[in-house]
Amino acid sequence: MTAVDTRSQVGALIRKDLRAVRRSKAIVWPMVIVPSFLLVALPAGMAWFARSQPSPDLSTLLDRLPGNLGRGIAGLPAREQMLVLVNGHLLLPLFIVVPLMVSAVLAADAFAGEKERRTLETLLHLPIDESRLYVAKLLVAFVPSIALSWIGFVAFALVSNIIAWPVMHRVFVPTGGWLVVIGWVTPAVGALGLGIMVRISSRSETTQEANQLGGAVIMPLIIASVGQATGLLLIDAAAVWAIGAVIWLAAFWLIRGGMRRFTRDSVASRL
Description:
With 271 residues, the chain is mainly alpha-helical. It has one domain (3-268). Helices cover 82% and strands 0% of the residues. The protein is built from twelve helices and no strands. The chain has helices at 3-23, 25-52, 59-64, 69-74, 78-90, 94-116, 120-124, 130-168, 176-203, 207-229, 237-261, 264-268. The longest helix has 39 residues, at 130-168. The radius of gyration is 21 Å and the shape is elongated. The chain starts with a helix and ends with a helix.
């Protein structure tokens, strides 16, 4: 089989799975509503609230913030402080949570959904390498989750800057630190969660079971990510690149291990 034929088969599998996703309202609606609320509606509401406040006194709060974050914001005009604190820093964890959530939903459907639709046996008989079949399932979950995250980030930046313009009179998001986190760390965290969820999906009987089992594993990862995400803006770019590289290595280790264990026989034995 030539490389062109292999790519064609992988592409056909991805298109087939994306069509199945589009037909499933249980998957599509959460993928649209949750990111729209978290990445657009919530930041818009927070920006509007912060803009409407009559120069609140944030000195006590800023004194408790770690590193130079508090001092940097304290040096801004009083009306800008709330906007920069909330939309410029505190909402960053949302861009870690969203790709984790979306990729988890799609990955849970990767194999468990095929079992529910009774199409897995046909899939396993396709003349395609097991590793490429595994990669196709990964890409179906990974690409939409990162695309939604990046589209949401553009919408977030536009909404935040437009609403805050009467106060800020400048573009205040994204900063260089945001771009490194969104472009490098966020996909790495998404891939890490994906490596876990695809393994769970291949061992689950239904999508619901995969989501329940995956939730128990992904939730600590979400909590840890949220707890550390804002801190990424307080360190230099080289350290952020290094952290992202470590997460990518962990993700590749999980994915590679899952690929090695993935065989037609092992999946078929759970039909």
